[in-house]
Amino acid sequence: MRIQPTIAENCGPIRGVVPKSILVAAHTALGGPFVVGSHHLKREFEALGIQTGHMAFPSNAFNCALRSHQGPRRLRRWIDTTFLGASDGGEIPLFSFLPWASVKFTRGHQRSCPNPLLTTFPPVASALSRRGLMNPDLLIVDHPRWAGLERIVTPRKLIYRPTDLYIATDPALLPYEAHLASRADGLVATSTRLTEHLRNLTPGARNKPAIVLENGVEFAHFATPSSKAPELFDIPGPKAIYVGALDDRFDFQTVKVLATERPDWSIILLGPMPEHTREPMPPNVHFLGAIPYRRLPEFLQHCDVGLLPTNGHPLNDSRSPMKLYEYAAAGLPVVARRTSELSRRNEPFVFCYDETDASSRCLVSAAKWKTKNLSITTSAAEKRDWRRLAKEFLAFATNIIEQSPSPRCSKSERGANGR
Questions:
Q1: What pLDDT does residue 331 have?
Q2: CATH homologous superfamily for the domain 2-216+387-416
Q3: Under 8 Å CB-to-CB from 334, ≥6 apart: which residues?
Q4: Domain boundaries of the chain, sorted by first residue
Q5: What's the pLDDT tens digit per position in 326-363?
Q6: Predicted model pTM
């Protein structure tokens, strides 16, 4: 596998055959509480004049009934766009009559398109045809559950862009990820650990063009001065803040230690969290709930340190934290548990601890850093602006598009999948 290092400064004109149409098959739908890399890439591709479609894996009755916010929200959007003629807001909504788990009970599922993609309403092909995206120049897939989509759509080139080590939490995804890695014309990973994983998936993947392209930041959004959020008015400083999911990858114990050892600090946690996961915390820990992405600068710019208190979850070591450069763009140094990816980057504004007991010392060091090195912090973030990363992605894709075409499936395979 040819590993090409990222060059964030490469922000000039893109030479070669730039794709005119791109379809992004993502793991997270637009419009929810989290704005992820595929959302930023879509925005930047469109800003460059490229027709871009975005869709998340089909919602279904099962997750609509059990998931407290995402399922019902996506169902309402599907109803509004499919039956009421509402604008789709850039998302291509799909609803499946079968949950993803059902594919595991389908005979020969590893050799064919996953069942939920064949039982959607509207059909995937119909939804894409209406938007002129059945034959995109580029199909970008960022989750193994989309394996087989390239047999419904006929992209000129396929790029697989995983954002997590998915098989660490669901080993059943391995054959689907191997399928994508073998069918893809290029591989884009968000960390070196993921690149190594892709290299070892299949023998064919070792020789595919590949780059490491970490998650970035919408720099102007976070760096442009913003007024202070009203929710912060009654919270005393100094303030350390975390933004993101408060799930099984988050280290509540470190937060408790920080709050206990530094009672003069306020610890602010922003993000949706099921009530049953909350454990008792000191009074200087403030749970403010989920905050819309557009309002995040109101919080970050008026705090002192950003937090990344991850735990030993297998996904954390390979992650490319979205909030790392969002914190930096807002002028915040970062206190984080050490991972192999953070160690590789060796950013001067990131203060890593290995044991929870050391997190308090890192917090003090980070606060001192901010007062003297603000320009270094924001400069590091500016180099990771999503516009630069989108152009780097397109430069990589352009090189692949200019290569001779390689068929991904035979006519018999296409016919077997309803083509």
A1: 94
A2: Glycogen Phosphorylase B; (3.40.50.2000)
A3: 305, 306, 307, 308, 324, 327, 328, 347, 349, 350, 351, 366
A4: 2-216+387-416, 219-382
A5: 999 999 999 999 998 999 999 999 999 999 889 999 99
A6: 0.86
